[in-house]
Specification:
Elements: E1 2-3, E2 26-34, E3 37-44, E4 55-62, H1 76-87, H2 93-105, E5 110-112, E6 129-134, E7 139-144, H3 150-164, H4 170-177
Antiparallel strand pairs: 1-5, 2-3, 2-4, 5-6, 6-7
Length: 186
């Protein structure tokens, strides 16, 4: 079974304190399954105590500055090529998992099966797999679910940014990739 779901935009409010999140502020976002819906919750860094048990994915980001240009991610084929390369590097399983989530969010990959419950940083003997399908390649992939440790999160973010972000506006990116709609500012 293939699953395709919408991720709601940031409310720009902390789910724990109901305080407005300010531009430039670090925040954490989590995805939880509530019935048939995927719900996004955003937390101020000061209110973050870790991903809730119900979360099946989470990430750290900054609330965008309203006057800054949006970053331009590499084209989908470049992302898929990196995804393939990371499959050959077991030491980068956590980065491949993060890239998989990005590709699902961009609708390049689709979940093939039920969403997984939350995964904490991996421990020996606790291997879990997530199956995704790529309509472009008409191929399925099994990816090890490896939530990065706190130490690795920033390293992965920096590595992926260095490899995949080239600047430009979201409109230019959409023009190049042929994507329409789904413009999120947070």
């Amino acid at each position: 079974m293939q699953l395709d779901f919408e991720i709601q935009r940031s409310t720009r409010r902390c789910a724990a304190t109901d305080r407005a999140l300010e531009p430039g502020e670090w925040c954490y976002s989590v995805l939880e399954v509530h019935g048939a819906e995927i719900v996004r919750k955003d937390f101020a860094a000061s209110a973050w105590t870790g991903a809730p048990a119900e979360a099946f994915g989470w990430w750290k980001s900054r609330v965008p500055e309203p006057h800054l240009k949006k970053i331009k991610l590499a084209p989908n084929d470049v992302l898929l090529e990196l995804f393939d390369q990371l499959a050959e590097r077991p030491e980068n399983e956590d980065m491949r998992y993060v890239l998989e989530l990005l590709l699902v969010r961009r609708r390049v990959l689709r979940l093939d099966g039920p969403a997984l419950p939350a995964a904490k940083p991996s421990t020996p003997g606790s291997v879990r797999l997530m199956t995704v399908y790529c309509p472009i390649r008409e191929a399925s992939y099994e990816v090890t679910v490896v939530m990065p440790s706190d130490d690795r999160i920033e390293a992965i973010q920096a590595q992926l940014s260095e490899l995949l972000i080239s600047g430009g506006t979201a409109e230019e990116q959409d023009k190049e990739t042929g994507r329409q709609g789904d413009k999120e500012s947070g």
